[in-house]
Design a protein that fits this description.
The chain is an alpha/beta fold and 359 residues long. Helices cover 44% and strands 11% of the residues. The strands form two sheets. A five-stranded mixed beta sheet has the order 2-1-3-5-4. The N and C termini lie far apart (80 Å).
């Protein structure tokens, strides 16, 4: 290797140090190997290998599938095999009896909510997740350290944690489920394995590559969604909360200019900004000549509201509702009072203000 570096330095005398360093890194990353077990593959090590190959150092790495300790000892990093977890040695197996690590135990700064035992996918994500996200972030999206922390947790919660739970046999519920889900990502990956009575001589290593392509679709969608869709929505909700007193002095009404997923962000940001329970109504533009006024629920998925629309309006529509409310342009009020409509923003705001003051 040092002979190669010497030759390269002679060729690059007239080049910049940056160019020289880049080529040294290319040499350094040559012949890298990622080790995992052979035989039937599962979603966790497939996802672990996919994530590793998004990093510059493992981008062109060979995947060695074996249970032979001698072969695995030649690998630069090993996942899901070897009966050893040692981050310094880059060994990430989770099958040992004594292994009980979770994302919260290894990353306590993220809080104590993550209680699912990690699989090889979770272990790789724990230590390399931020770097993977930086590599996969769409062009033009510069993530601040706070953005990266938020996205890191959301991607874990929405795809990696599921792989951890399934691979470690953690049930969805303590009760007997009423039905089974057979089309989740882990099941689809498993279906790629040759059947026990298959007569074909399948190359499982080639199928493993297909499995990585399958998990890549789900993982890339999740990353792109939270960076390109979820994060801008959060920023929008935060701005609307900070400006809410401009629409009404009470500070209990928040106005959005369009329809988008706001509930999760509202609850999260209320916690962060010290506003828990303060927002009673959200107003948003549903379509042309249609504004909605929605009562904020006590929980994101609940229909029980902090303050419903005026009870005397429930189930009333159109002109009859406008007359009863004394507000022009009313369209409807739901029979449970959790949402209503008006043709204008002014009308929707008036419905919210009236309901705030209603007994």
């Amino acid at each position: 290797m040092f002979k190669n570096i010497y030759k390269l330095s002679k060729l690059c005398k007239k080049s910049s140090f940056r160019y020289f360093s880049a080529n040294i890194n290319l040499l350094k990353y040559q012949n890298m190997k990622i080790g995992t077990h052979d035989g039937v593959f599962h979603c966790d090590e497939v996802l672990a290998c996919f994530m590793l190959k998004q990093l510059p150092e493992y981008k062109d790495a060979e995947i060695v599938r074996s249970r032979d300790p001698e072969k695995l000892s030649t690998c630069d990093i090993v996942v899901d095999v070897g009966a050893e977890f040692d981050h310094q040695k880059k060994r990430y197996d989770h099958h040992q009896r004594e292994f009980k690590e979770t994302l919260s135990t290894l990353r306590p700064e993220l809080g104590d909510k993550y209680k699912i035992k990690l699989s090889s996918a979770g272990l790789v994500y724990t230590f390399y997740g931020e770097d993977v996200l930086k590599q996969l972030a769409p062009k033009g999206h510069l993530l601040t350290s706070e953005d990266l922390r938020l996205i890191y947790k959301k991607v874990y919660e929405n795809i990696v944690e599921e792989m951890d739970a399934i691979d470690n046999g953690v049930p969805l519920t303590d009760d007997k489920p009423r039905y089974k889900i057979r089309t989740h990502l882990s099941a689809r990956v498993h279906r790629l394995n040759p059947e026990w009575n298959s007569q074909s001589n399948s190359n499982v290593d080639e199928i493993f590559v297909k499995a990585m392509a399958l998990v890549s679709e789900e993982f890339l969608y999740t990353v792109n969604y939270f960076i390109s869709v979820w994060l801008p929505a959060r920023d929008y909700v935060k701005s609307a909360l900070e400006e809410r007193s401009e629409d009404h002095e009470s500070g209990e009404i928040v106005v959005f200019k369009e329809r988008f997923p706001w509930k999760e962000h509202l609850f999260d940001l209320e916690q962060e900004l010290g506003l828990v329970g303060e927002i009673k109504f959200a107003i948003f533009n549903d379509k042309i000549d249609s504004w909605r006024v929605q009562a904020v629920p006590v929980e994101p998925n609940s229909f029980v509201t902090r303050k419903p629309l005026n009870k005397s309006w429930w189930g009333v529509r159109d002109d009859q509702l406008s007359k009863a409310a004394g507000i022009k342009g009313c369209i409807f009020c739901h029979s449970t009072g959790f949402i209503g409509g008006n043709t204008t923003k002014t009308g929707a705001l008036a419905m919210a203000i009236n309901s705030l003051n209603a007994v």
